[in-house]
Predict the 3D structure of the following.
Amino acid sequence: MNPTSLPTLTAFAASPDRGRGLARDMAVRWAFEEVGQACDVRLVSFSELKEAPHRALQPFGQIPTCQFGDLALFESGAIVMQIAERHAGLLPADAGARARAITWMFAAVATVEPAIVARESALFTEHDRPWHAERMSLVDDRIRVRLAELAARLGTADWLDGDFSAGDLLMVQVLRRLGGSELLRAHPVLVAYVDRAEARPAFQRAFAAQLAVFTGLKGRPPAP
Ligand code: GTB
């Protein structure tokens, strides 16, 4: 391994989110920015995702993956965790606080995200089914419950447990998938939480970098 080589992240060459920073490379980009670690980004086409070289890195044929020298990882949550373990800034030093922040990372991807992903599936792949309206109503009800519970826990705090952590990063990234939906707007506490996270300079830099891929500006010289 070349000790000077940067970690290499894979991302969509043409993200279907059209630069809104909703694909899962965004959490990884953001985590790298929070800890001040540069990374290389390798853009992958939809067909390349399903080919053997990429599947060797990601068995499900998805982005993101991240190569840290000899260590190749997939799953955005696991990659964010690896970044947080290698660098200060995303997990507290105190053992108990660190364990609680990691708990919030799991809560984001295992308890809150599935309901939101189910809604996206219902919207995009089940909209022509005769039971679509009934399904949407059930899916939305599940999200309402989860968001109410999350808002109750967050209360008037800035972050879920003390300082901003990898738990907040993953949770905010999950909530962003709801975009401007009434489900999120029903909870001003959560809207403010997402706004606060998006105002972080590290988020702004990561967002700009993924947007540059979409707008095709990446690598071009600045306008005169
Ligand atoms: N659990 C995995 C992780 O967290 O890394 C999930 C990875 C995943 O779902 N990757 C998606 C992918 O590669 C991209 S992020 N899909 C291609 C495939 O499965 O063939 C999901 C995503 C896609 C598009 C939008 N969007 O358009 O707004 C948002 C999120």
About this structure: The longest strand covers residues 8-12. The chain is about 55% helix and 10% strand. The chain has a mean pLDDT of 94.
